[in-house]
Task: structure prediction
Amino acid sequence: MRLDKIFNLLIISFLLASCSEEVPAYREIWQKAHHLDDARMVEFYGEPGKDKDNMLGAILEAVDGNWGKVADLTEGSRPSDIYAYYHNLAMAMEGCLADSLMYYYQPFERGLFLPVGETSGQLRIAASSEVWYRLGEMTMAEHSAMLAQIFSPEHFGVPYLKRLAEINLVNGQDEAARKYLRLLSKEDGCGKWVADRIPGQQSKAVKEQISYVKSLVPKSDAVHSPYDYRGMLKNLLASNPDNQLARQYLLCLDILVKDLVHFIEDYDPSRDRSRLYDEAVLIFLAQRSAMTPENIAYFGLSEDVLQDFSDYNNMVIFNQGAMEPMQEKYGKTYWFFYQYAKRNNK
Result:
């Protein structure tokens, strides 16, 4: 999807949001879904605030696959890992991750995956399962969903029960899925969701969704670190080269961690088209003094992007590498990100 389509989507999204119903009270929905009284809700999630409510809403809407709502809730370039994570996932589910990537805050690989550990907050743990499920990596998805359940305030949460039920349906473990569905059947508002997923009685839409996710699951197991994101994405693609979400994530992971050697290895200019990729290719070629007509033709680089890259480098020289003059004109390019973005390890 090209940039003009991205801008059109943003305009339509804004108009729909301005005409839509009042935003749901996600904090109240979250509180009810976790069986929390007011005091416990404040203890674990603090006082009400728009950003926190948007994060809660993004988690709830993503579990049900409402990507337009997820995109609206995470709109804007806020310096937040969770905002970036969900906005990137929403864009990827629409097939336009690469074309949107440089228009929002990107905390390197944490904009694609949320690592969890002993110091991770509960919301980060709660969110971490979603991308793994959508990619088809059920082991990581189940691990994260179980951690979310364990570290939730009362060791309970409807979003995690939903995710665990679907993971077990994908894995063909119907009895385990029924256990989670029975628990969910006792929750207000979950009746239809449960009825549509009972093994042997699933709705057509649910059957298709479960079948699709099942087609993404790796056919062979691989031993890996929980932080070997590239290795897991490569394993997913080895089993299913048509896993478009995994392909978007692999290329954008290479780009965000500034690993252009692996990017060129993973990139196929005959199928992966984006201005972002062209900008990354130009950095790679320039670093190796390989801006030959043959390479320019092979990667399909246009005269416009070549001229823009020349103008960018001339402006860097003119401003002696100062960041501020570059940001206004080139702040949404990969060239700017590659040269000036610094990793925050906090």
User: Anything to note?
Assistant: The CA atoms of residues 31 and 145 lie 18 Å apart.
